[in-house]
């Protein structure tokens, strides 16, 4: 469930703050 919520947050942040922020979040997740 946490991964699901994190996925939604990452997607929303990508739209709101730009792809750079999403890239940082994705890297932090280990992908």
From TrEMBL:
Record's protein name: Rod shape-determining protein
Lineage: Bacteria, Candidatus Shapironibacteriota
